[in-house]
Amino acid sequence: MDASKRQFLRNLTGLTAGASLIPVTELQAAPASAGKRYGMVIDLRKCIGCQACTVSCSMENLPPIGQFRTTVQQYEVEMEDTQQVTQVMLPRLCNHCENPPCVPVCPTQATYQRDDGIVVVDNKQCVGCAYCVQACPYDARFINHETQTADKCTFCVHRLEVGLLPACVESCVGGARVIGDMKDPDSQISRLLGEHAADLKVLKPEQGTAPQVYYIGLGEEFVNRIDGQPGLWFPDHG
């Protein structure tokens, strides 16, 4: 971390909660796809937990070893009707919320939302304060060990802008991940949202963030309670 960032973090300790940290500035935002709103549908019926998405994302975006922009968490759930234990695969990533709580807490405006809905981080602006990490209810953000700045899934926006699919979508062997423009009624994602409207769920809807990552086949036990780290989870049945 350079001297200017260290000085900024030291200055933060002398500010009271709710104080105005810096004047509002206009960011040099990456070009956004005009008139589009990107979202993703993940069909859990097709996810086999192969982690191809996790590996391809790491190869594409090169986060530090042990840190990931997307993962597939594995849970063991005891079914109430049969008392049998079944394994559930749950892909996790940034939800690119309609109302992203990570944006207003950023003191340098390094985290911002593009016109197409994709939430990104300007690493030149980020000071690594981790306010956005704490604000995200989906455990989708982390401080990159190498850059000491906030890191997260960006829907591989650099690929979208040249007509390619995100690495995780392209590598999904089961075709469980679908990304597209939700404003285009003829897009594959729009058709899926229409066909499966009754079965679509998002994570933690009570947070009011309006996530734009939708799940097909998500059990009710996962809607409000999601552990932050990968592993096996046995829901309470008390």
Strand order of the largest sheet: 8-1-10-9
Secondary-structure element string: HEHEEEEHEEHHEHEE
What's the level 1 CATH class of one domain? Answer: Alpha Beta
Poorly predicted residue ranges: 11-30, 228-238
How is the CATH topology of one domain named?
Alpha-Beta Plaits
Count up the helices.
Answer: 6
What is the averaged pLDDT score? 84
Strand content: 15-25%
How much helical structure, as a percent, in the residues? 10-25%
In the CATH hierarchy, the architecture of one domain is 2-Layer Sandwich
Taking Cα atoms only, what radius of gyration do you get, to the nearest Å? 19 Å
Number of DSSP-assigned strands: 10
Q: What overall geometry do the principal axes of the alpha carbons give? A: globular
Instruction: State the end-to-end distance.
Output: 48 Å
Pfam family, one: Fer4_11
Keywords: 4Fe-4S, Iron, Iron-sulfur, Metal-binding
Protein name: 4Fe-4S dicluster domain-containing protein
Organism: Oceanisphaera sediminis
Commentary on this structure:
InterPro entries: 4Fe4S_Fe-S-bd (IPR017896), 4Fe4S_Fe_S_CS (IPR017900), DsrO-like (IPR054822), ET_IronSulfur_Cluster-Binding (IPR050954), TAT_signal (IPR006311). It comes from Oceanisphaera sediminis. Residues 38-67, 85-116, 117-146 form the 4Fe-4S ferredoxin-type domain. Strands 8-1-10-9 form a four-stranded mixed beta sheet, covered by helices on one side. A two-stranded antiparallel ribbon has the order 2-3. Strands 4-5 form a two-stranded antiparallel ribbon. It has six helices and ten strands. The longest helix has 10 residues, at 3-12. Mean pLDDT is 84; it is low at 11-30 and 228-238. The protein has helices spanning 3-12, 52-61, 131-135, 157-160, 167-171, 188-195, and strands at residues 38-43, 71-78, 85-92, 111-113, 119-121, 142-143, 150-151, 177-181, 200-201, 213-216. The protein has a domain at 35-98 and 154-222: Alpha-Beta Plaits (2-Layer Sandwich). With 238 residues, the protein is α+β, with helices and mostly antiparallel strands. The radius of gyration is 19 Å and the shape is globular.
